[in-house]
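A.,

Following up on our hallway conversation. Structure tokens first:
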């Protein structure tokens, strides 16, 4: 696996160990993208954030 793959694997392992912190980071990233794009891609960022959360089992009680 390349360096990028190794980094992604480490990030996923860390997110599984600290899902509350990972959820905060995902929320912050989603909010930043929405602000900078004027919410033009809001539906896409929602789906992307949900996909990321599923990948590490984060915030399972979040309304969908």
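Then the amino acids I'd put at each of the 64 positions:
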């Amino acid at each position: 696996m390349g360096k990028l793959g190794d980094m992604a694997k480490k990030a996923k392992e860390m997110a599984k160990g600290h899902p509350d912190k990972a959820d905060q980071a995902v929320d912050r990233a989603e909010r930043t993208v929405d602000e900078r794009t004027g919410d033009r891609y809001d539906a896409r960022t929602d789906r992307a954030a949900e996909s990321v959360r599923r990948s590490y089992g984060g915030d399972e009680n979040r309304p969908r």
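The mean pLDDT is 89. Curious whether your intuition agrees with the design.

B.
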